[in-house]
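quick one: heme C bound model?
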Amino acid sequence: MSFSKAKRFFQKKISIHKTTVVIIAIMGCVFTAIRCTNNNEEKEISTEVQYSDYAGSGKCISCHKEVYDSFVHTAHYLTGKPAEEQFIKGSFTPGSNSYHYNPQLHIDMEKTDSGFYQVVYYKGDKKMSMRFDMVIGSGTKGQSFLTWRENKLFQLPITYYTEANQWSVSPGLRTDKVVIDKAITSRCMECHSSFVQALGDPQLEPMEFDRSKVILGVDCEKCHGPAAKHVEFQAANPQEKSGKYIVNPASLSRQLQLDACAVCHASNISKTKPSFQFIPGKSLLDYFRVDSLSQVAVDNGNIDVHGNQYGLMTSSKCFRMSDKLTCNSCHNSHANEKGSTALFSQRCIDCHSTTDATFQTASHKQVNAIDKNCIDCHMPTQPSRAIAVKLQGEEKMSASLIRSHFISVYEEATKNFLKAQKK
Ligand code: HEC
Ligand code: HEC
Ligand code: HEC
Ligand code: HEC
Ligand code: HEC
Ligand code: HEC
Ligand code: HEC
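yep, here:
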């Protein structure tokens, strides 16, 4: 079944949102017209930062092999990948490759010679199939999948949810019907890829992209700036021992270092310039309106931790009462240090010596190995509202747990920690 036919089917049987369908149908015609009369080169928006300014991490290996070899194990590198078998975490084996909306309606994940598909079945009949083109998410928590239609990206209805090792409805989508028209905004790509060449009007969302000009994942150049010129210069000048035309975050001011991470880790910001124009070393405020989490929100317990490490961390006393804390004080961007609790605790101890009077308090004195874990008491995990899915057969949503970056005293977490320690 073709996409438009399928849409009509869903409209009738499963009642997809009507206006969206109409808009998509109209846009579909516009696309076809543009495609006949124009090519992508002409539609490219002329902006300060272009695809040709980028080299891609493959080019860094020859001179920075150690960094590269370690970096490829990070969630950043893995957060955007082509839809190949090695990168898709969920199962395609019959028996564990389905999601059932109701007894009549289900989606199977199917592998064929031409790729991977989400196939919709209604009363046993195959209704439509949608191709996996791109994997979003390292799979630490889950993976969502995108499909190209013309020059636009759409989110597939089914997501892989790691904790339960199950396929489930993608976060934010209705669970009583199949939603096939969830367009992917350029903002989604700005956080989960390094660069995508935008086409057409930059004010229009969902934006059109040139699918041949995509740098997947949070790659080297997302933190170091476009590096084609650096690569060219260093290759032509092998005697040159210092790096040119490249940003080292360590030499930026504290705020600019924070900005380079906040572009993706401060959820409440909105663009004021075209997509992908912010690069490290620039001030985020020249490209985005920052609406970061206020203390009031923290006090009210209204903290959606998803993606807002910046807002939470900068509300913490550790940040407000020291002049040097940045994300890089605790995180090494080139290595996967997930779960290395003792290592992270050491970074707390850099500022909070365990020989201080602080460590004579009642709670601290009860801890067996205080230098091994500051984290579970002072940065407990909390359920995310954004990364939450409805698992098959369950009524309640299951939410991913996310580490709070509001570093503080948590009584409940302390109680749980001390209880667990006794066992
Ligand atoms: C032809 C060799 C070469 C290639 C290719 C290369 N670099 Fe470099 N880079 C260097 C040299 C030499 C330096 C200076 C010594 C150092 O800091 O390692 C450097 C330094 C750097 C620095 C630190 C700059 C500073 O001011 O401290 C960064 C960051 C960097 N490179 C990133 C990259 C990235 C990202 C890529 C791939 C897109 C890349 N490099 C590709 C040779 C290269
Ligand atoms: C282009 C957007 C972007 C930028 C810039 C960015 N991040 Fe991330 N970061 C992400 C995304 C997306 C994830 C989730 C990756 C996943 O698991 O799929 C992530 C995950 C992480 C994680 C969790 C890693 C893990 O093992 O689960 C840490 C820590 C982190 N980022 C720190 C930083 C720091 C520090 C900076 C700045 C130096 C930074 N990020 C800059 C988008 C970004
Ligand atoms: C403002 C930046 C931002 C935007 C926009 C964004 N994400 Fe994320 N996403 C993150 C960060 C950061 C994480 C890591 C978890 C966290 O810190 O909350 C993440 C985590 C994820 C994960 C789980 C990855 C894992 O295994 O840990 C998936 C899947 C995901 N995002 C998909 C999407 C999709 C699809 C969109 C667009 C519809 C989107 N995200 C929009 C920043 C963003
Ligand atoms: C999430 C952000 C991020 C990503 C992605 C990233 N880096 Fe870095 N890089 C940093 C930060 C932050 C520093 C400064 C570390 C410090 O404080 O000394 C740095 C420093 C460097 C340096 C200077 C020397 C050193 O090791 O400290 C080089 C060279 C470098 N990075 C190369 C790369 C290459 C090559 C890649 C990809 C394979 C890469 N980086 C990916 C954030 C990142
Ligand atoms: C760059 C230095 C620095 C680092 C790193 C740091 N802190 Fe702090 N922290 C401070 C300062 C300064 C204060 C405020 C003065 C004080 O209470 O000691 C503070 C305050 C605190 C407080 C009291 C918070 C409150 O609301 O009363 C806790 C708890 C804390 N830090 C825990 C941690 C933990 C756990 C880590 C590691 C995950 C950490 N800190 C890392 C500097 C730091
Ligand atoms: C005081 C230390 C500290 C600072 C500063 C800090 N983090 Fe973290 N971060 C941690 C610890 C500890 C974890 C949990 C790591 C684990 O258990 O694997 C973590 C986890 C994360 C995760 C994964 C969240 C999850 O639950 O999956 C992201 C994303 C992240 N940090 C981003 C950032 C960003 C962006 C900044 C700066 C705005 C930052 N962090 C500043 C200590 C810190
Ligand atoms: C069992 C949970 C637990 C662990 C583990 C723990 N803390 Fe605490 N911490 C607390 C509690 C609770 C308080 C509040 C004072 C009290 O009740 O003892 C506190 C207070 C603090 C304070 C603020 C003291 C003040 O002057 O207001 C700092 C700083 C701190 N902790 C840092 C750390 C660091 C650094 C580590 C790891 C080396 C750590 N804590 C490990 C529970 C813990």
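Residues 18-37 form the longest helix (20 residues).
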